[in-house]
Design brief:
39% of the residues lie in helices and 24% in strands. By secondary structure, the chain is α+β, with helices and mostly antiparallel strands. The protein has a 3-stranded antiparallel beta sheet with strand order 2-1-3, with no helix packed on it. It has a two-stranded antiparallel ribbon with strand order 4-5. Strand 1 and strand 2 form a beta hairpin. Helix 4 runs antiparallel to helix 6. The longest helix is centred in the last third of the chain and has 31 residues.
């Protein structure tokens, strides 16, 4: 067994003799280390990186975290401070990404620049999500009933523009119906169905209602983003604005 011998004053490692065990070393230390002097030396059964003599027990041991910081061997990180009463390191968790550590007052404080940058990032992300949510709402399918059969109209921008053009031409040409309105039957197959003026008004009204709701919901969301806190933004699901 190796015994690690340190100078009592400098706490430098001065020897590490091989022994027959700690008890044997205690009985006859000079047998294993002829220069042993209990007045100027101390020993440990393990190698100590940062040795210190305990002020209460007088035993040699490894420095604890508090002692290493006081000795300048370790440094306090943000959110840490020394508690002189308990002789320990206290830690306060960082509350958010926009706070900085005030070492003098031992507390986290809001950095307005960081907070505003975080708000801007969240707002931009939510605006992207909002555009996607609005698009999904606008492009919802619309049910059409014709001659006792049910169809669905794919309400995407391309189909809306195509339908609008056909309706305009119908009015110009004074027609009473449109013969080729693209839709899907109940089996999911594409059909081109005929819709008269009344049926077209119903379909157009449904499309217009969806557009109006989408625009209003978008405006409400954009207005809300201007006054929401960061915590509210983090909890916000912009799709909720487009619930039917």
């Amino acid at each position: 067994m190796i015994i690690y011998i340190y100078d009592k004053n400098s706490l430098e490692l001065i020897a590490q003799p091989m022994t027959l065990g700690v008890e044997k070393f205690k009985e006859e230390p000079n047998l294993f280390f002829p220069d042993w002097n209990s007045e100027t030396m101390v020993f440990s059964t393990s190698y100590l990186v940062n040795p210190v003599i305990d002020t209460e027990t007088g035993e040699l041991r490894e420095m604890n975290e508090y002692e290493q910081i006081v000795a300048g061997k370790l440094f306090l990180a943000d959110g840490e401070y020394l508690d002189e009463k308990s002789k320990s390191v206290k830690r306060i968790a960082k509350p958010n990404d926009w706070s900085i550590w005030d070492r003098e007052n031992k507390k986290w404080k809001v950095d307005n620049t960081l907070m505003n940058e975080r708000k801007k990032e969240l707002k931009n992300k939510l605006l992207q999500d909002l555009a996607e949510a609005k698009s999904n709402y606008l492009n919802q399918t619309i049910e059409i009933e014709k001659a006792g059969k049910k169809y669905t109209f794919e309400n995407n921008e391309k189909n809306r523009n195509r339908l609008s053009l056909k309706i305009s031409l119908m009015w110009v040409l004074e027609q009473d119906k449109i013969e080729k309105v693209k839709a899907q039957n109940d089996k999911g197959l594409v059909e081109f169905i005929e819709l008269n003026r009344t049926e077209l008004k119903v379909l157009s009204k449904k499309i217009q209602d969806i557009i109006e709701v989408a625009d209003i919901a978008e405006q409400m969301a954009v207005t809300g983003l201007e006054r929401y806190t960061i915590d509210q933004m983090l909890e916000l699901n912009v799709s909720d604005f487009f619930q039917n």
